[in-house]
Every structure is written in C-alpha cells, then in structure tokens.
Amino acid sequence: MQGEQDDPSDPGYNRVFLRERGPFMAQMKEFFAAIGAGNTAVVRTMLDAEPALINAKNEHGQSAILMAVYSGRSEIRDLLLARGVSMELHEAVAAGQLDRVKHLVDASPELSRSYSPDGFPIFALACAFGHLPVAMYLFEVGAQVNAAASNGTGYNALTGAVAGGRAEIADWLLQNAADPNYRYGGGFTPLLTAAANGHMEIVEMLLLHGADIYAKTNDGKSAVNIAEERKHAEIAELLRGKGAPA
Questions:
Q1: Alpha-carbon distance 233 to 85, whole Å?
Q2: How far apart are CA 170 and CA 178, in angstroms?
Q3: pTM, full prediction
Q4: How far apart are CA 94 and CA 125, in angstroms?
Q5: Which of 145, 222, 224, 243 has the lowest tally of Cβ within 10 angstroms?
Q6: pLDDT exceeding 90 applies to what percent of the chain?
Q7: CA separation (Å) from 76 to 29, 52, 195, 211?
Q8: Is residue 2 predicted with pLDDT exceeding 90?
Q9: Of 127, 118, 40, which Cα lies nearest the Cα of 80?
Q10: In whole angstroms, what is the distance from residue 233 CA to residue 141 CA?
Q11: Which domains are assigned to the chain?
C-alpha cells in the first residue's frame, strides 16, 4: 500500500525485489514491446511462462491492458481480459468492461467524472474507444459530456468519437448537449476533424447540430481546404454547397 515501507525481514521481500530489479524487468520490456507490435503469439507465450506479467506496468506507468487498447491491439486486449487481468476504473472503461465499471462506480457515482492518470476524462475514453453502453452508464450517473482532458490535448468525448469515426456515439453525444463547435489542439473543431478524416456521416450530423462551417484552424485552413488536401472530394463538395469558404 502507498506509504508503507519495504521490510527486508519479510520473507517475500527478496523475491519481490529480485523480480522487480532482475530478469523480470527485462521480461517486462519484451512483453510491452510485443504488445506494441501486436504480436499476440509472443504475448501469450510470455504469459504462459510468467503469469505475473499480466498486471505489470511499463516505465511510463501504463498497464498492459491500457497499452493494448491505446495501440488498437484488440486481439491482445481480449487475451488479457480472458486471462483475468486486474483493471482500475480508467482501464475498465477503455476496455469496454461495463460490469467492472459498474462495480467500481455504483457506490461512488462521482467517479463518473474522474480522469485517467494520463489526463483524459474516463467518459471521453469510453466514447473514443467505441463503448456506447459504458458511456451511457457514466452519463446517467453524472459524467460531464463536455469535460476536456487536463493533459494539454484538449480532447473530449466528442473529439474522440469524431476522430475515431464513431458515428453512433457522436450522434448520441450531440443529442445530449455536446458542443459541436468545441475547439482544441491547433484550433480544430469536430467538423474540421471529420472533414480531415473523411467521415461523411459525421460531417452531416455535425452540420445538423449547428457546426460552424466557417471555422478555421489556427493556421487558417477551412474544412473545405482540409477535405481537399486529404482527397475527400465529396465532403468538400457538400461543404461548398452549404456555403463553406474555400
């Protein structure tokens, strides 16, 4: 527990110390490298040989399950879940584990408004990774739709959903008072991001909910400019038809 001191007289102390300072550290590096590379076979083999790796954290304090989710390694995420990985709240949210989320939040609804250690609202994580049931539950118990990251990125639930092409979640957020004209890194808005990524359905729903077609990035690029640069001709045409500037 935090605040307790290591006790060398504890029979388990040397085993823990050697594990943390010896070969286990090298195994951890190999294990996280395999996750990052999406090498499920290596991850499985290493877990078979050393089950404790499943709950290890890398040098940045990131767990295996969170790294798998963040890097889009769904097969490895599912393997870790099947092996019974321990999860803190932000990890359960990012992995879409509604039962675990409810177990942690039901007794303390204020946790619905909490942030991950790397500065993202947990509600935004649910939306960014496509977990609508988790997002809806957190919203019902008090999550703030427009809460923004505290890590300097400015990301929120809508920006995460838009960037990830999560049309159903973006639509649900907009119906529940998400700001369609929220500005974040580089002066981007959800509409500018959707245009950049070629998400026509999301562009259309943002326009229906009042997205500003005149918005420009900090370096002066409009949604039409960005769509044309990214070769999304249909989106550029749609925006021009709505009166968006070139």
A1: 45
A2: 9
A3: 0.89
A4: 5
A5: 243
A6: 88
A7: 16, 16, 31, 37
A8: no
A9: 40
A10: 42
A11: 13-86 (1.25.40)
> In one letter, which amino acid is 76?
I
Structure token pair of residue 33: 């490298």
26: confidence class by pLDDT, cuts 50, 70, 90: confident
- Three-class HEC string of the chain: CCCCCCCCCCCCHHHHHHHHHCHHHHHHHHHHHHHHHCCHHHHHHHHHHCHHHHHCECCCCCEHHHHHHHCCCHHHHHHHHHCCCCCCHHHHHHCCCHHHHHHHHCCCHHHHHCECCCCCEHHHHHHHCCCHHHHHHHHHCCCCCCCECCCCCCCEHHHHHHHCCCHHHHHHHHHCCCCCCCCEHHHECHHHHHHHHCCHHHHHHHHHCCCCCCCECCCCCEHHHHHHHCCCHHHHHHHHHCCCCC
Beta bridge partners of 222: 216
Instruction: Of 84, 178, 171, 92, give the one whose Cα is nearest residue 129.
Output: 92
Query: What residues does 155 pair with on adjacent strands?
Result: none
**6-15, 159-168, 209-218: least confidently modelled range:** 6-15
Report the mean per-residue pLDDT for the chain: 92
Cα three-residue angle 158-156-92, rounded to 5 degrees: 100
Confidence of residue 173 (pLDDT cuts 50, 70, 90): very high
> What pLDDT sits at residue 9?
38
- pLDDT bucket at 22, cuts 50 / 70 / 90: low
Check whether 14 has a pLDDT greater than 70.
no
Instruction: Give CA–CA dist 181/117, Å, rounded.
Output: 27
